[in-house]
Amino acid sequence: xxxxxxxxxxxxxxxxxxxxxxxxxxxxxxxxxxxxxxxxxxxxxxxxxxxxxxxxxxxxxxxxxxxxxxxxxxxxxxxxxxxxxxxxxxxxxxxxxxxxxxxxxxxxxxxxxxxxxxxxxxxxxxxxxxxxxxxxxxxxxxxxxxxxxxxxxxxxxxxxxxxxxxxxxxxxxxxxxxxxxxxxxxxxxxxxxxxxxxxxxxxxxxxxxxxxxxxxxxxxxxxxxxxxxxxxxxxxxxxxxxxxxxxxxxxxxxxxxxxxxxxxxxxxxxxxxxxxxxxxxxxxxxxxxxxxxxxxxxxxxxxxxxxxxxxxxxxxxxxxxxxxxxxxxxxxxxxxxxxxxxxxxxxxxxxxxxxxxxxxxxxxxxxxxxxxxxxxxxxxxxxxxxxxxxxxxxxxxxxxxxxxxxxxxxxxxxxxxxxxxxxxxxxxxxxxxxxxxxxxxxxxxx
Length: 446
Ligand SMILES: Cc1cc2nc3c(=O)[nH]c(=O)nc-3n(C[C@H](O)[C@H](O)[C@H](O)COP(=O)(O)OP(=O)(O)OC[C@H]3O[C@@H](n4cnc5c(N)ncnc54)[C@H](O)[C@@H]3O)c2cc1C
Ligand code: SF4
Hints:
- The chain has 18 helices and 13 strands.
- By secondary structure, it is α/β, with parallel strands linked by helices.
- The strands form 3 sheets. It has a 5-stranded parallel beta sheet with strand order 3-2-1-4-13, covered by helices on one side. Strands 5-12-6-7-8 form a 5-stranded parallel beta sheet. Strands 9-10-11 form a 3-stranded antiparallel beta sheet, with no helix packed on it.
- 41% of the residues are buried.
- Residues 58, 60, 62, 64, 93, 97, 99-101, 117-118, 121, 427 line the site of iron/sulfur cluster (SF4).
- GO terms for molecular function: glutamate synthase (NADPH) activity; iron-sulfur cluster binding; oxidoreductase activity, acting on the CH-NH2 group of donors, NAD or NADP as acceptor.
């Protein structure tokens, strides 16, 4: 631990976002970075707690106190070596992880100013790329082969781990390029796609075979591999089957988000296939992160207004006694996209879509009340009869994804990531990929 008293004198400093007026005119990353000196000062705030709750909260078990100390002392290479021993791709988590670790930091509990762990992680990996610490590592082959189906974060980590152990790994994906939701879900303003491309070049040079544009039927897996890992995510979005669902102008969030990311790669779409918010009143149904990504995208596309509705009540601001430290706090959250301009409302159920000439014009919503249950379980919902119409000519459904049912696979087939757990987080999918790779290695070596 570099400076045992730094946390008393140095406040938390986030790099912050680019100004709203500037960032909504482009799709580049909104988050900025600190200079090297300020970054080291931020690292010095880590107290190296006897019980590092940050480490406990991180699904991949990052050793934050160790790399914070190295970072504070300017030992960037050492910091990267410690970080990369648990995290395959810190350039992804350093940008888009919700930082479960920071919510469990002891400085979150004591003064609500946790160490900037996620940003420090991003700084370490960017320095590693810049300084050339990340080099192609070609392992000796062990003669065994593994097929990984799905090249999202879970599949990429599984492939990376097994490739480094000497397996010949083939990564299949139905999309034209690897990344899964990192590439075709998460907007560029949160994660630039050249960050993915940079890593894919290294993985390919290290020997992973990429078979893109290949949809694999998991009931008839490609022959000739010693083991398989299914990392196909959660492809089915939750629908809203209410009257008027057939009207034009109602889309799943990912239809818009994936199309926007592909457009930025230079792809074009026929006019009747475009999902674009330009000049439209947008209604996003679903108050979570996918909904928030729809807001940022709609604002950049030129929506005239954006409203986000959620059926659940507004979470408490600041502190929630139901989720005490060091748990993940279920509290009111404002993302960079929310800051960019939208109306947010809670306790609204959608009764029916309204339309004219086959096109959506609005949604009839109804206020609901939530009553807590005596046993502390899920509260019960009651419609209040207070109805109104929210006008909209583009409705985006962002209500989550269905958990896939996996068939009973033979013993050499493993499942990881969202395909295994249901929709979750990049860092959890990466943890699942590590766990699956360890199981596959165990299976193939014993
Ligand atoms: C809009 C959006 C924003 C998000 N933002 C964040 C965020 O900011 N931070 C965060 O931590 N998490 C975020 N998430 C969640 C996160 O993206 C996922 O939890 C994570 O990507 C899951 O990884 P995965 O590898 O399991 O699946 P996926 O990323 O879904 O990848 C699955 C891959 O499998 C491929 N595939 C599917 N079926 C087949 C088949 N039959 N044959 C071949 N290939 C197939 C798909 O094409 C895809 O590439 C977000 C999710 C969405 C939808
Ligand atoms: S991966 Fe997420 S939870 Fe883990 S150290 Fe990084 S920011 Fe924190």
